[in-house]
User: What shape does this take?
Amino acid sequence: MVKHPKYQAMDEARQIAIPKAFEKFCPDDFVLDVIEPKSDSRPGPIPRPTFRVFSPQEVLLAHFHPNGYSECHDVSFQEIYEKMKVMIEEAAKRGYEEFQGL
Assistant: This one.
Protein backbone atom coordinates (compact mmCIF):
# COMPACT_ATOMS: atom_id res chain seq x y z
CA MET A 1 0.00 0.00 0.00
CA VAL A 2 1.26 3.46 -0.89
CA LYS A 3 1.21 6.20 1.74
CA HIS A 4 -0.78 9.36 1.10
CA PRO A 5 1.52 12.19 -0.08
CA LYS A 6 0.83 14.23 3.07
CA TYR A 7 2.29 11.41 5.18
CA GLN A 8 5.22 11.10 2.77
CA ALA A 9 5.86 14.83 3.32
CA MET A 10 5.85 14.31 7.08
CA ASP A 11 8.21 11.33 6.81
CA GLU A 12 10.58 13.31 4.60
CA ALA A 13 10.60 16.20 7.09
CA ARG A 14 11.36 13.82 9.97
CA GLN A 15 14.12 12.12 7.99
CA ILE A 16 15.81 15.51 7.52
CA ALA A 17 15.17 16.63 11.11
CA ILE A 18 16.52 13.56 12.94
CA PRO A 19 20.21 14.24 12.16
CA LYS A 20 19.70 17.95 12.88
CA ALA A 21 18.16 17.16 16.28
CA PHE A 22 21.04 14.80 17.00
CA GLU A 23 23.58 17.53 16.19
CA LYS A 24 21.72 20.09 18.29
CA PHE A 25 21.10 18.07 21.45
CA CYS A 26 23.63 15.23 21.66
CA PRO A 27 27.17 15.55 23.03
CA ASP A 28 29.97 15.42 20.46
CA ASP A 29 31.14 11.97 21.53
CA PHE A 30 27.75 10.36 20.82
CA VAL A 31 27.27 8.53 17.52
CA LEU A 32 24.34 8.62 15.11
CA ASP A 33 24.19 5.35 13.19
CA VAL A 34 22.12 5.44 10.00
CA ILE A 35 20.82 2.12 8.71
CA GLU A 36 19.90 2.57 5.08
CA PRO A 37 16.98 0.47 3.81
CA LYS A 38 17.66 -2.39 1.46
CA SER A 39 16.72 -1.45 -2.08
CA ASP A 40 13.42 -2.95 -2.97
CA SER A 41 11.59 -2.50 -6.26
CA ARG A 42 8.19 -3.44 -4.85
CA PRO A 43 5.46 -0.80 -4.91
CA GLY A 44 4.64 0.82 -1.62
CA PRO A 45 5.92 3.52 0.73
CA ILE A 46 9.35 4.98 0.08
CA PRO A 47 11.90 2.94 2.06
CA ARG A 48 13.53 5.19 4.67
CA PRO A 49 16.52 4.76 6.97
CA THR A 50 16.51 3.95 10.67
CA PHE A 51 18.54 6.20 12.96
CA ARG A 52 20.18 4.87 16.13
CA VAL A 53 21.91 6.92 18.84
CA PHE A 54 24.85 5.34 20.66
CA SER A 55 26.85 6.52 23.66
CA PRO A 56 30.65 6.66 23.52
CA GLN A 57 30.62 3.24 25.21
CA GLU A 58 28.57 1.91 22.25
CA VAL A 59 25.39 1.56 24.31
CA LEU A 60 22.19 1.94 22.27
CA LEU A 61 20.39 4.93 23.74
CA ALA A 62 17.50 5.43 21.31
CA HIS A 63 16.29 4.85 17.80
CA PHE A 64 14.16 6.94 15.48
CA HIS A 65 12.18 6.11 12.35
CA PRO A 66 10.99 8.75 9.85
CA ASN A 67 7.43 7.42 10.19
CA GLY A 68 7.30 8.94 13.69
CA TYR A 69 8.04 5.84 15.73
CA SER A 70 10.91 6.17 18.18
CA GLU A 71 12.03 4.57 21.40
CA CYS A 72 14.38 5.54 24.21
CA HIS A 73 16.40 2.60 25.52
CA ASP A 74 18.27 4.29 28.36
CA VAL A 75 16.78 6.35 31.19
CA SER A 76 19.89 8.55 31.34
CA PHE A 77 19.16 9.70 27.76
CA GLN A 78 15.45 10.42 28.34
CA GLU A 79 15.77 14.21 28.64
CA ILE A 80 17.71 14.56 25.38
CA TYR A 81 15.40 12.04 23.69
CA GLU A 82 12.33 14.13 24.60
CA LYS A 83 13.93 17.31 23.22
CA MET A 84 14.82 15.49 20.00
CA LYS A 85 11.26 14.14 19.67
CA VAL A 86 9.77 17.62 20.01
CA MET A 87 12.08 19.04 17.34
CA ILE A 88 11.42 16.12 14.98
CA GLU A 89 7.64 16.32 15.36
CA GLU A 90 7.68 20.09 14.87
CA ALA A 91 9.47 19.44 11.57
CA ALA A 92 6.83 16.85 10.62
CA LYS A 93 4.09 19.34 11.39
CA ARG A 94 5.79 21.95 9.18
CA GLY A 95 6.13 19.35 6.41
CA TYR A 96 2.42 18.61 6.65
CA GLU A 97 1.51 22.30 6.63
CA GLU A 98 3.72 22.95 3.62
CA PHE A 99 2.09 20.06 1.80
CA GLN A 100 -1.36 21.50 2.61
CA GLY A 101 -0.23 24.94 1.45
CA LEU A 102 -0.81 26.52 4.86
